[in-house]
Amino acid sequence: MARAMELAKQAADAGEVPVGAVVVDPSSGQIVGEGCNGPIEGHDPTAHAEIVAIRAACASVENYRLPEFELYVTLEPCVMCSGAISFARLGKVVFAAEDIKGGAIKNGPKFFEQPTCHWRPEWEQDLDCAEEAGQLLKDFFKSRRKK
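User: That's the sequence. What structure does it adopt?
Assistant: Structure tokens below.
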């Protein structure tokens, strides 16, 4: 999660919503894909940190399925990202800050609990990093409102 937090800070520095994500091989602890939010810079509404990290991981391991890998992300994934997580068949998702408005795992539609969801990874919230990740988001949006 430490690397995901670094990536979130990089996103904030670039003017993007501060979210970072990494895909990890739990057998080795090696990061196989990482990303931070980039919709504004990339003119791509799908360039959420999770999607970027999943794409990089799939390219790295040369497979579009990642059942033995884990995703660590600083913010609870949205519906789009939850769908990508399911399609990639990630084994586990760990997120820091929950997203009351836009989250889709613990909040909102609870995507992985829906009967139409074909792959349900394990998931948990990293409460040790939740406050830091949440504060990064609050500070970012507060600074944007002042402009």
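The chain has a mean pLDDT of 97.
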